[in-house]
Amino acid sequence: MEDPYLRERATDIRDLGRRILSHLQEKTPSVTEELTEPVIIVGEELTASMLGEFPLDKVKGLVSVMGSSSSHVAILARAMGIPTVMGAVDLPYSKLDKVDMIVDGYSGQIFTYPSDAIIDSYQQIVDEERLLESEYEQLKDLPCETLDGQRIGLYVNTGLLADINRSLDRGAEGVGLYRTEVPFMIRDRFPTEAEQEQIYRQQLQGFAPAPVTIRTLDVGGDKALPYFPIKEENPFLGWRGIRVTLDHLEIFMAQIRAMIKASAGLHNLKIMLPMISNVAEVEEAQSLIRRAYAEVKEEGYDVIMPKVGVMIEVPAAVYQVKELAGMVDFMSVGSNDLTQYLLAVDRNNSRVAGLYHTFHPAVLRALNDIVEQTKGEGIKLSVCGEMAGDPLGAILIMAMGYDTLSMSSTSLPKVKAVLRKLTMEQAEDMLAQVMSLAHADAVKQTLMKLVREAGVERLIRPSKTAALQ
Ligand code: PEP
Ligand code: MG
């Protein structure tokens, strides 16, 4: 049909069809709302927007046949501390209704009908995790400082309202990445400027006076809005992030105006632009941000011009990092996308998940080059991809000279515990040793050996999981 709205109603019909089919196959209908018992959600293709349909306090695990550990649904699950296995390709997922199951998010294994012995082993892992959690609790108000007194900022990545308390409880020093697409995904239409203002204000107020970095809408790729479908052959190379919002100025302007209004009297807003691949995008976005700021100020709000930064997540931006540094106030490396684009490995495709490696020497060199290229530019650098929340990645990023790391609140205490047990010299030495290696696996193994020697392996993952593999 011509009309895009009506055309999209095809999705509703398809959904209805699926439900009828499910009845014909005598499957129980969707139970998302009546869940009273703890459950593991198993599906062919779990998506970030699906998570919004479940009462998350009941969800104890997720298993998806499609996708990989760097898919957005996996990132959200990690942020919520839900063990998840992605890319379970041979799983007979439709035959697992009501089956007892263990999901090991550390190793990516699933055990159906587990024996008592396996249940006991995993209970010990759970107990060990709880013990570590209580150790971490004591670090909450301590700075992230190496044994020789070097400070590194630990920020959080947020998306949901619930992230605020979770992050403050864990000692976050600010928000390094607020993914605005999350509140957009759990609605059935675009939130209005006034609604957005309210949503953003909760984040800004929750963390004030600490800085909150709000990223403009990064839809496309594997993040679809149900009411704004984008159908493309190559979604990760297509209409995504800043490309969408600069083509839809009404979306961009409403969002920026809402962010700036929300910061009134708080002055802790930073705006970050995703998927930047050339300087023209930054120039255009900056001029729109200046215009929005002037309008909001004119309307009488007590606001200051926010700091503006870009994500470095496309290889082109790595090679133009010096020019970009001269234009913006801060830069944050999105290592999830940078890995996908440098290695040409779709982060959502389970078939090539084995090739997706943040410890690939090319990724490490790019990260290191960003620091080298921007020395003397007076720019603040951070990493906000999942690598920053992996203690091994965090050690390397700190040693390279980044100012802050931004990660899920689940990862933060662990990263802090590990970095506080090392000297900067030790971290630099580890970096020097792995930078000369040619294989990603060698980098990972060497790092594991080095953390074992440094006596911090216990903090990284429960000894039982290592023993089970
Ligand atoms: C990244 O790409 O590393 C990042 C932080 O952004 P996202 O995961 O939302 O694409
Ligand atoms: Mg990204």
UniProtKB/TrEMBL annotation:
Subcellular location: Cytoplasm
PROSITE patterns in the record: PEP_ENZYMES_2
Family matches, as InterPro entries: PEP-util_enz_mobile_dom (IPR008279), PEP-utilizing_PTS_enzyme (IPR050499), PEP_util_C (IPR000121), PEP_util_CS (IPR023151), Phosphohistidine_dom_sf (IPR036637), PTS_EI-like (IPR006318), PtsI_HPr-bd_sf (IPR036618), Pyrv/PenolPyrv_kinase-like_dom (IPR015813)
Domain spans labelled PEP-utilising enzyme C-terminal: 135-422
Top-tier EC class: transferase
Keyword check for NAD: no
Record bears the keyword Transport: yes
EC number in record: 2.7.3.9
Predominant subcellular localization, coarse grouping: cytoplasm
Pfam families linked: PEP-utilizers, PEP-utilizers_C
Cofactor: Mg(2+)
Alphabetical UniProt keywords: Cytoplasm, Kinase, Magnesium, Metal-binding, Phosphotransferase system, Sugar transport, Transferase, Transport
Catalytic activity: L-histidyl-[protein] + phosphoenolpyruvate = N(pros)-phospho-L-histidyl-[protein] + pyruvate
Gene3D superfamilies from the UniProt entry: Phosphoenolpyruvate-binding domains, Phosphohistidine domain, PtsI, HPr-binding domain
Signal peptide boundaries: none
GO MF annotation: an example: phosphoenolpyruvate-protein phosphotransferase activity
Superkingdom of the organism of origin: Bacteria
Domain PEP-utilising enzyme mobile: 36-108
Similarity section: Belongs to the PEP-utilizing enzyme family.
Annotated protein name in UniProt: phosphoenolpyruvate--protein phosphotransferase
Native organism: Rhodanobacter aciditrophus
